[in-house]
Amino acid sequence: MTTILLRTAADLHARARTGRRATVMTMGALHEGHATLIRAARDLAGAGGEVVVTVFVNPLQFGEGEDLDRYPRTLDADLELAGRAGADVVLAPSVDEVYPGGEPQVRISAGPMGERLEGAARPGHFDGVLTVVAKLLHLTRPDIALYGQKDAQQLALIRRMVRDLNFGVDIVGVPTVREPDGLALSSRNRYLSAAERRTALALSGALFAGRDRHAAQEALRARAREVPATHARVEALNALGESRAAADAHAVATAGGPEAVRTAARQVLDGAARLTPPLTPDYLALVDPSDFTEIGDDFTGEAVLVVAARVGTTRLIDNLPLTFGTLGAAS
């Protein structure tokens, strides 16, 4: 399909609009993860709707010493990928278009949730993210906006902003897209050398170890619930020759929970810290997605296992959702 490149919101607003508009916000350097977002937007907008992809490297969300100047700019390739994925428009505004008159004096504050984890590691980052997201929502005026679940804390904050400030837009999260070896797709992956990339696999490896530990715990708990807690239970297990297995299952289930998930993930990161080149973790946490605080041992419901680390000069993040209190791990 033919994808139109626009530079100003006025040009976008001048287009005849029918059906629903879906916006996908990017900083460019598009890859298959972005293409997945655009395809999901196409499905939600429908044949009669419109998909708008924004390409804007937002200076407000880069802290001192971060890679604003180094961040890849590949607009021609971005336009081609966006078109193949189903975008009608790529809006690539200048800094002056988004921030007329210079940096905004009034900004969105991310609040306490924006000061945890990524916010603690990158002070002010989420204020810059929410400010540009708010502006781009106003500039593109979508019915739906889609964001990747890979940036889990960012997605949670955008949802909170839209709810708290009464934005008239539906926010849709799209699952993380991974390489065949498990590494989450990111524009920053291109900075990694071959050796650094091998080390970087510890991020997804840690998440998968936590997920597998959680799945084993939930399966053992389900098994323990299958036999009534009576004298008949002991007799039944003995008859099956499973008394030792049942005892082991009970011990594992009792001693498990969120802390066991953290421990399994942390062991992978500790091993990667001894590799050449080494992995340098920033944080590993198992959090409630509503506020990104650590969950306790009695937690039930949806949680997110999140990790951030550096390999060489490249900083990467990843996460995996888990469900506590029901059989099996979440996606």
From TrEMBL:
PANTHER family to which the protein is assigned, alphabetical: CYTIDYLATE KINASE/PANTOATE-BETA-ALANINE LIGASE, PANTOATE--BETA-ALANINE LIGASE
Matches recorded under NCBIfam families: panC
Name of the protein in its database record: Pantothenate synthetase
Organism of origin: Streptomyces pratens
Note: The reaction proceeds by a bi uni uni bi ping pong mechanism.
Active site residues according to the UniProt entry: 34 (proton donor)
Keywords: ATP-binding, Cytoplasm, Ligase, Nucleotide-binding, Pantothenate biosynthesis
Higher taxonomy: Bacteria, Bacillati, Actinomycetota, Actinomycetes, Kitasatosporales
Catalysed reaction, written as an equation: (R)-pantoate + beta-alanine + ATP = (R)-pantothenate + AMP + diphosphate + H(+)
Residues holding (R)-pantoate: 61, 154
CDD domains reported in the protein's UniProt record: PanC (cd00560)
One Pfam family from the record: Pantoate_ligase
Subcellular location: Cytoplasm
